[in-house]
UniProtKB/TrEMBL annotation:
The keyword Lyase does not apply. CDD domains: ACD_IbpA-B_like (cd06470). This is Molecular chaperone Hsp20. Residues 30-140 form the SHSP domain. It comes from Mesorhizobium hungaricum. Belongs to the small heat shock protein (HSP20) family. Residues 132-166 are annotated as: Disordered. PROSITE patterns: SHSP.
Length: 166
């Protein structure tokens, strides 16, 4: 059973969240996808993540990792065909393509293949101009001056906490 959600009331009270609503709409439209190859997603730090995929039977040259804007595409296709006389074939070797939606400013920092596990490391790297900054309010003496100071998110958060505690 599929339920359609109407996000139009949220459009009236939000600015700049169009991509989030598009992701939600696309997720509700997407039919159930193949669950192969299995994978794990782990948070390894405040802004660091790791994707681990079980790709038994695939060599390094048979796997492809492509980082597109806000999308990571991992695909694999076996180039060699083993035509043995199998009594049971349980190791899947079919081609696959797995897509991961990425948040803004998430970059791939490395990938490795060890013991049939493909590991992809990701890091969110927010540009300095996108980090929070403190904006001072000028006096009302006829001259509306404002000064912007660059600061880190922790410094701004501490200032807000100090004001709330006072």
């Amino acid at each position: 059973m599929r339920t359609a959600f109407d996000f139009s009331p949220l459009y009236r009270s939000s600015i700049g969240f169009d991509r989030v609503f598009d992701l939600l709409e696309n997720a509700s439209r997407t039919p159930s996808v193949d669950n192969w190859p299995p994978y794990d997603i782990a948070r390894t730090g405040e802004d660091a993540y790791r994707i681990t995929m079980a790709v038994a039977g695939f060599g390094q040259e048979e796997l492809s990792i492509v980082h597109e804007p806000n999308m990571l595409v991992v695909s694999g296709e076996r180039t060699t065909e083993d035509n043995g006389d199998y009594l049971h074939r349980g190791i899947a070797g079919r081609p696959f393509e797995r897509r991961f939606e990425l948040a803004d400013h998430v970059k791939v920092t490395g990938a490795g293949l060890v013991n049939g596990l493909l590991t992809i490391n990701l890091q969110r790297q927010i540009p300095e101009e996108m980090k929070p900054r403190k904006i001072e309010i000028g006096s009302s003496s006829g001259k509306a001056g404002s000064r912007i100071e660059a600061g880190t998110a922790k410094a701004v958060g501490k200032q807000i906490a100090d004001k709330q505690a006072a």
